[in-house]
Amino acid sequence: MHSLIIFASGAGSNANAILEYFKKNGKAKVALIVCNKAGAGVLKIAEREGIPTSLIDKTTFNGQVLIDEMRSYNPSLIVLAGFLWKIPDGMTRAFSGKIINIHPALLPKYGGKGMYGHNVHDAVIAAQEKESGITIHYVNEHYDEGNIIVQEKCSIKPNDTPDTLANKIHRLEHLYFPRVVGYLLDKIKD
Ligand code: GRF
Q: Which tens digits make up the pLDDT trace of 39-62?
């Protein structure tokens, strides 16, 4: 069975969607949840599910100990599910080709430093875009610039607000992210 490591900073609704999906199909297990924010919702989900957690600060995040701990789980994929720090080059190199991220917009537009969560939906609505969506991509040394794996779109109606757009995006994320992880795992020998 494949092992996954999830990085998350917030509510953890994507982490939860992935957990629930693999509880049903048994193809993978979430071996560790790494979080940089004490009290984050994702930590409560980990506790509920009995999943080990690693609460990090900038020092531990940039150190070798965390990489060694991650290696001990022999993860097939490292899944960034709403993680707000840029992955250090040492970690990208240690898990080259194994780190994926989900971004709540159609990259390369509305990506890069500072473009996360509601900032993205605010900018998309302000620009009067007719569509938005999600991008699932590999992580490399540059913020939000790794090879794109999948993009899924949603239309934006004239009466849409950043909040209603956020709901549409979350629905896309919770539907597609677990399935894309499953698709990638099928291509990896475990
Ligand atoms: C999601 O919108 C994701 O696209 C972005 O951060 C948000 C995380 O939400 N990277 P949650 O913590 O999974 O609810």
A: 999 999 999 999 999 999 999 999
The amino acid that residue 35 corresponds to is C
pTM: 0.96
Calculate the dihedral angle through the C-alpha atoms of 108, 114, 115, 119, rounding to the nearest 10 degrees: -160
- Ligand 1 center to 75 CA (angstroms): 21
Q: How far apart are CA 23 and CA 84, in angstroms?
A: 26
Query: What angle is formed at CA 166 by the lines to CA 117 and CA 121, rounded to 5 degrees?
Result: 55
Domains of the chain with CATH codes: 2-118+136-153+173-186 (3.40.50.170)
Q: Is the CB of 40 within 6 Å of ligand 1?
A: no
Q: How far apart are CA 73 and CA 174, in angstroms?
A: 25
